[in-house]
Amino acid sequence: MSAIFRYVGRWEVFLLVVLIATFAMGSQVSRYFLTSSNVSIALASVAPLAIMALPMTLVIITGEIDISVASMIGLCSATIAVCLEQGLPVELAMLTGIVVGGLAGAVNGAFVVYGGLPSLVVTIATLALFRGVALIILEERGVTGFPDWYQEIGFGTVPGTPIPWSSVIFVVCFLGFAVFLHLTRGGRVLYAIGNNRQATRFSGINVDRTLLGVFVASGVMAGGAAIVLTAFLASARADTAIGLELNVITAVVLGGVNIFGGSGTLVGVLIAVLVLAFVRNALGLAAVTPEAQQVVTGAVLVTTLIVFGSADTLRTLCARLLRRGSSTS
């Protein structure tokens, strides 16, 4: 009985029920919702968000936050475009975008770790900084003319299947992040930092280097997300990914990651990404405007914080009941 309570009480189980309900309601909204082509489109469109949710999970587990992720994607996308305009091969342009993303993440981490500034304040500032740099180097123009093989990264599918290549990229990244976070000492260090940073520092762990590492990882993954998003849109602009940071943070918090750090799983984040993807897809099929979809996203974030807090209280109550039952037996 206690094992049943532990599993049923998990946030991931609740999210799985929500995902099933989303599919059930979506199928009522449109007969096209459950078609393979529509599922493929939904997965391809959410891939950049899903990719960025991985490093954001690590950042938030440590008790920090990165608001600048969308601007880093825009900067990396602009970098790729400028490299192509200068005649560089697409492969080198992609690598340059990833390097620029890593440097941007290092800037965030340096201000937080060595400057002693709150990550919220730092990344709000660099949100404007990185977007401004992207606007300077690319101005108002959009860059197109990418090779067909590159565009396949964004909306192409694995031959003979409806599975987008971008989803394959995400799965590979997800497995790497999941193994690191849940099966290695480095992952346990992140949880320790989020729970008690001072005690972790006293235990001999280099907290500063770890925090710098998660911010650099966020920047590097922003470069990867920029590659996928630019390929999906078949164009690069300085305003690419504006507003994506809200969706990324929503996915992570909806996935059960404590916004104050110290707890959460990537499995929950994965299910939350799928919920958001198919809710947004169903709203699109129902002809709901993008602005209204943003309202829904914000409402989901607020509701999640309320429900998650209530769920914590319920789990605590169940634990007490189980302990009381075991002590009287």
Description:
The protein is mainly alpha-helical and 329 residues long. The protein is built from 14 helices and no strands. It has helices spanning 2-8, 11-29, 36-61, 69-85, 90-113, 119-138, 148-155, 165-183, 185-195, 197-202, 207-233, 244-254, 266-285, 290-328. Helix 4 (69-85) runs parallel beside helix 6 (119-138) and helix 7 crosses helix 11. It is globular. The mean pLDDT is 89.
Which H/E pattern describes the elements? HHHHHHHHHHHHHH
Q: Over the alpha carbons, how many angstroms does the gyration radius reach?
A: 21 Å
Mean pLDDT: 89
Instruction: Please state the overall shape, judged from the principal axes of the Cα atoms.
Output: globular
Count of alpha and pi helical runs? 14
Please report the distance between the alpha carbons of the first and last residues: 13 Å
